[in-house]
Amino acid sequence: MPTIKKQALVIGAGTGGYPCAIRLGQLGVDAMLVEKAEPGGVCLNWGCIPSKALISATKLAHKAQHAEHMGLSFGAPTTDMPKMQVWKAGIVSKLTGGVKQLVKGSGTQYVTATAEILGPGRVKLSYPDGKPDDIVECEHLVIATGSVPIEIPGFSVDQDKVRDSTGALELDFVPEHMVCIGGGIIGLELGQTFQRLGTKLTVLEGLDRILSVCDKDLAQVVARQIKQDGGEIVTNAMAKGFSERDGKLWVRAEVGGESKEFPADVVLVAVGRRPVAKGFGLDKLGVELDERGFIKVDARQQTNVAKVYAVGDVCGQPMLAHKASHEGEVVAEVIAGKNTVNDARTIPNVVFTEPEIASAGLGEAEAKQAGHTIEIGKFPFSISGRAMAIDETNGFVKVIIDKSDNRVLGIHVVGPEASDLISEAALAIEMGAFAEDIALTVHPHPTLGEAVMEAAKHALGEAIHVGNRRR
Ligand code: NAI
Q: Fewest beta carbons less than 10 Å away: which of 90, 146, 384, 418?
């Protein structure tokens, strides 16, 4: 088999692998990026981007239907799901095409093939077009193979009646009833998307509340919205299986020890994702996995095997695109001989629900567990002029500080544009800011960002537009 020599090989062109490949090229490392499917991975093809397209389109429809009090009436919208899918696919193809160009532009070779590790520094590439296999000999190997949805017994995913996130994003009709198994990020983001188009939504969550990764007070705002829009949330509900009768699916769940049934036309299974660390020869290198199957890495994304690295979902939580990209860039610098470590203080978390939730830094419970005596500042969007003007007053900003020195520990936003507001919070935490740094930064008026400033002032007992506790 022909042999290609490279300084670095990156397996997987998702949001971990492709930034790594681009950075390697920029740094003058002779690298190759190999991907068996489309460039961009789950995020660009079957996750973040297509879901955000459907979310924004359906939010528009929902908002138009609820604008009468603003003096605007539109009548009932008609939904052309196949057309929405075409629009969404156009965005995806523009972005994935851009990835290939960026990689090539950086000087890194992009190859469509399936990679199999044969042994230390040796990887076989099998091409989809029947071209003879190649062997790549590389000094450095980066594993960026991502994750796949977890399946549960009783719900074999056929991408028709029972769908995972990939299948749900391809729906070309609006189901009358949807049951989401799992009240996590995917279940709620996609569940609310179809709810806004008129689907009756039932969320079955095994734990005692939805969005267990978020602080409770933030998750409650989304739970209220789902119910207000006619949805049902059933907690302590473990989905067990389903049957078909009278043209419906009947999802069976154990709810607090009782067996109950819920009608559905489509079932969305969103119970988490698992790493892809097996099936491509990684075991031949002796790379260590943790008890959940994630590749173990150190602060330089290095595995227990020298010159073998891992980035993104495959090396652990949080399974977020921006975390993967950051790790990919760190690894590229490590390979190029720079003294770089992954020392990010926070990986912000964003949930594109209605309203959006975004967090940076520690939650209330985490901060207390870490031994901090905390002070909390809050500012509700219900009294923000900008939030009123855009008619999105649901939610609040919460700033958690250490009472001893006012250091910002965490900032949490539930409300309009939380996903964009959180970048200021991430910067504050990354820079080790104090509440005063945010409070004394003049924020433009009238903006949603003022709520972050007011919440910081509230934590200090100095808020102008909301009553202060005495400190
Ligand atoms: P998740 O971990 O967020 O939520 C899964 C939920 O399912 C949990 O609350 C769990 O208790 C529940 N569950 C598990 N088994 C169950 C059963 N048999 N019956 C009822 N409930 C059950 O997982 P999800 O939503 O699938 O998302 C996977 C990953 O994708 C997340 O880790 C997230 O980081 C990532 N993601 C991030 C997004 C973002 O940043 N906006 C968007 C979508 C996904």
A: 90
Nearest atom of ligand 1 to the alpha carbon of 240 = 18
DSSP character at residue 432: T
Class (C level, CATH) for 355-460: alpha beta
Ligand 1 centroid, distance to 267 Cα (angstroms): 15
Look up residue 294 and give its DSSP letter: P
Number of Cβ within 10 Å of residue 188's Cβ equals 31
Q: Which residues face 400 on adjacent strands? A: 376, 410
Q: Please write the tens of the pLDDT for every residue from 54-81.
A: 999 999 999 999 999 999 999 888 999 9
Q: What is the pLDDT of residue 121?
A: 97
pTM for this model (two decimals) = 0.96
What is the full DSSP assignment across 354-371?
SSEEEEEE--HHHHHHTT
CB of 351 sitting under 6 A from ligand 1: yes
Percentage of the chain exceeding pLDDT 90: 97
Residue with tokens 């760190």: 330
Question: From the CB of 184, is ligand 1 less than 6 Å away?
Answer: yes
pLDDT at 166: 97
What pLDDT sits at residue 461? 97
Q: 210 CA to middle of ligand 1, Å?
A: 10
Q: Tell me which CATH homologous superfamily contains domain 3-149+274-335.
A: FAD/NAD(P)-binding domain (3.50.50.60)
Residues with pLDDT less than 70, the chain: 471
pLDDT score, position 2: 85
| CA–centroid distance, residue 184 to ligand 1 (Å) | 4
User: Residue 233 to residues 51, 189, 190: CA-CA distances in angstroms?
Assistant: 21, 14, 14
Give catalytic residues, as residue numbers.
Answer: 445
Q: Does domain 162-271 have CATH number 3.50.50.60?
A: yes
Cβ–ligand 1 distance for 32 under 6 Å, the answer no
Residues of the chain with CATH 3.30.390.30: 355-460
Tell me where in the chain the CATH 3.50.50.60 domain(s) lie. Answer: 3-149+274-335, 162-271
DSSP string, 126-177: E-TT-PPPEEEEEEEEEE---EEEPP-TT----SSSEE-HHHHTT--S--SE
Q: What is the CA radius of gyration of the chain?
A: 24
Q: Is the CB of 187 under 6 A from ligand 1?
A: yes
